[in-house]
């Protein structure tokens, strides 16, 4: 890496947030260095598997003129599967337009999507240096002025190299060690603020993804799995279809893994044994297995988004909305916002708090921040009303099971049985209270 280098912007982390920030800066003509610790962008990254077209178009407007899109399948059917011990209630949505028009979302693998986006960043003028970990920040006069990397400054003295830049954008993901060093975060995350998700990619015999999930070649399914998937604990699983494989995963808060003594791989094995999923996976071969943390601290854990010379974007800032499976898109949007603030700071020639605060202002006036505020209430509600995870999925299965097998019986008797079941499992008063609370929440009260 030579002696002391200097760029106008240094971005740390080659995930969607870092790539978006770097592209925005390079396209505005700033000399931009992106440092990624992995062998290539995406090498160390794992996610469930849905990326959102609109966010990608905001970086690559001519996406649809690509010869080969970096995706697996368009998502044409989405929703939730409520699992009981042996059954499932499938709540999914699809419509003709979604089958025909440009897809809103695609399934993807990070090991393919991130390198593709990284190539676009290089074409925009970003210098992407992989296999390079940022180990510290260079601070002078109370301002971040660059980064220190795990490469020797020169082969003689073996001191770590320093790269100077008046703006450093941190997109280092959930571990956010550098954001802590920058003073943007003053505490470690708590186990109840972070989910751990485990995932497998399972190869199915040829043509079986379509056959087993009722899809055509150019159609895809993305469903979240609730209830038995998480043993009734707050969290969710997922099943996403790829070209010839399916991605199956499940996640819980770290605190629940610890308190209940559940091992992550056991949770996934339990899910794979569910009769409905076992049938889908039958004869399949596991190609990949991995685990990753998801920041779910929301507004309570939101760090300072900028300080003199430094900004933090994406997962490192906790910009994730697990209920809507939003993560990559929020990383991209926040990366673009931070990139624009870096460009504006260079135009002014001022990199102090007031200049970079533009990023915070833009983010706070976007839907990302409004959602953080709104979902603070929803998160608390779901944590306090665990019935949505342990009681209702079972109850929906039982009620529908009774209703749909009512032929040959007096229906009055069936309805009486259903009402008895509801009273036993949740109680009419609690049911009404839950419905009212949920209604109030969605009304924004
Ligand atoms: C199981 C799971 C399922 C998910 N499913 C979805 C989904 O379906 N759809 C969706 O939109 N989102 C999903 N997410 C969330 C999504 O993956 C993240 O929100 C998104 O990847 C955040 O992007 P980022 O750029 O902020 O961070 P990351 O993608 O984590 O990228 C951080 C990068 O920084 C690099 N890095 C870290 N430290 C250093 C350092 N010191 N020096 C140099 N490089 C460093 C890492 O190697 C990595 O490449 C899921 C997450 C998980 C874990």
* Rounded radius of gyration (Å): 24 Å
Strand order of the largest sheet: 6-5-14-15-16-13-17
CATH architecture of the largest domain: 3-Layer(bba) Sandwich
Helical stretch count? 16
Q: N-to-C terminal Cα separation, in Å?
A: 55 Å
User: What is the helix content?
Assistant: 25-40%
CATH superfamily of the largest domain: FAD/NAD(P)-binding domain
| Ligand identities | flavin-adenine dinucleotide
Mean pLDDT: 93
Classify the secondary structure makeup into a structural class: alpha/beta
Q: How does the overall form come out from the CA principal axes?
A: globular
- Unreliable stretches covering 5 or more consecutive residues: none
Largest sheet properties = 7 strands, mixed
Number of spatially distinct domains: 3
CATH topology of the largest domain: FAD/NAD(P)-binding domain
CATH class of the largest domain: Alpha Beta
How many extended strands? 19
Query: How large is the share of residues in beta strands?
Result: 15-25%
Structural write-up:
With 445 residues, the protein is α/β, with parallel strands linked by helices. It folds into 3 domains: 5-68 and 109-189 and 298-365, 3-Layer(bba) Sandwich (FAD/NAD(P)-binding domain); 77-107 and 190-295, D-Amino Acid Oxidase, Chain A, domain 2, CATH 3.30.9; 385-442, no CATH class. The protein has helices spanning 16-27, 53-57, 96-100, 110-123, 177-181, 208-213, 254-260, 264-273, 275-281, 328-348, 353-364, 367-384, 387-390, 392-404, 411-425, 428-442, and strands at residues 5-6, 9-12, 32-35, 50-52, 77-83, 88-93, 105-107, 127-129, 134-140, 143-152, 160-164, 167-170, 194-203, 221-227, 235-241, 245-253, 285-295, 306-307, 310-312. It has a 7-stranded mixed sheet with strand order 6-5-14-15-16-13-17. Strands 8-3-2-12-19-18 form a 6-stranded mixed sheet. A 4-stranded mixed sheet has the order 1-11-10-9, with no helix packed on it. Helix 10 (328-348) runs antiparallel to helix 11 and helix 14 runs antiparallel to helix 15. The protein is globular and about 85 Å long. The protein starts with a strand and ends with a helix. The model has no long low-confidence stretch (mean pLDDT 93). The protein binds flavin-adenine dinucleotide. Flavin-adenine dinucleotide is lined by residues 12-18, 35-38, 44-50, 133-134, 171-173, 178, 197, 199, 249, 292, 294, 314-316, 320, 325-329, 331. Flavin-adenine dinucleotide (FAD) binds at residues 12-18, 35-38, 44-50, 133-134, 171-173, 178, 197, 199, 249, 292, 294, 314-316, 320, 325-329, 331.
């Amino acid at each position: 890496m030579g002696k002391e280098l200097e760029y106008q912007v240094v971005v740390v982390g080659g995930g969607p947030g870092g790539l978006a920030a770097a592209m925005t800066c390079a396209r505005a003509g700033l000399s931009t260095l992106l440092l990624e610790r992995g062998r290539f962008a995406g090498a160390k990254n794992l996610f469930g598997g849905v990326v959102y077209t609109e966010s990608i178009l905001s970086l690559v407007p001519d996406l649809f003129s690509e010869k080969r899109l970096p995706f697996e399948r368009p998502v044409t059917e989405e929703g939730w599967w409520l699992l009981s011990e042996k059954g499932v209630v499938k709540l999914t949505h699809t419509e003709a337009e979604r089958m025909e028009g440009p897809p809103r979302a695609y399934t993807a693998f990070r090991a393919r999507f991130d390198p593709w986006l990284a190539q676009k960043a290089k074409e925009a003028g970003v210098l992407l240096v992989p296999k390079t970990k940022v180990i510290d920040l260079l601070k002078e006069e109370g301002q971040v002025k660059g980064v220190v990397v795990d490469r020797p400054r020169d082969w003689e003295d073996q001191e770590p190299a320093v790269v100077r830049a008046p703006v450093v954008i941190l997109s280092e993901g959930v571990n956010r060690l550098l954001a802590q060093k920058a003073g943007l975060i003053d505490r470690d995350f708590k186990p109840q603020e972070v989910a751990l998700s485990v995932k497998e990619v399972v190869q199915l015999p040829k043509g079986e993804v379509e056959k087993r999930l009722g899809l055509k070649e150019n159609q895809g399914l993305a469903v979240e799995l609730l209830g038995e998937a998480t043993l009734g604990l707050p969290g969710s699983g997922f099943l996403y279809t790829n070209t010839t494989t399916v991605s199956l995963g499940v996640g819980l808060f770290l605190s629940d893994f610890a308190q209940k003594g559940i091992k992550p791989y056991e949770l996934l094995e339990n899910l794979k044994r569910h009769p409905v999923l076992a049938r889908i996976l039958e004869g399949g071969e596991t190609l990949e297995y991995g685990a990753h943390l998801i920041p779910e601290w929301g507004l309570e854990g939101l760090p300072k988004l900028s300080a003199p010379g430094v900004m933090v974007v994406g997962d490192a800032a906790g910009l994730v909305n697990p209920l809507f499976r939003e993560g990559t898109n929020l990383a991209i949007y926040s990366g673009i916002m931070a990139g624009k603030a870096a460009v504006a700071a260079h135009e002014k020639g001022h990199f102090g708090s007031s200049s970079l605060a533009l990023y915070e202002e833009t983010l706070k006036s976007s839907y990302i921040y409004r959602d953080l505020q709104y979902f603070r209430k929803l998160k608390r509600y779901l944590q306090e009303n665990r019935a949505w995870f342990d009681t209702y999925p079972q109850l929906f299965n039982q009620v529908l099971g009774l209703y749909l097998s009512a032929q040959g019986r007096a229906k009055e008797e069936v309805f009486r049985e259903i009402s008895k079941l509801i009273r036993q499992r949740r109680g009419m008063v609690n049911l009404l209270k839950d419905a009212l609370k949920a209604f109030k929440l969605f009304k924004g009260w």
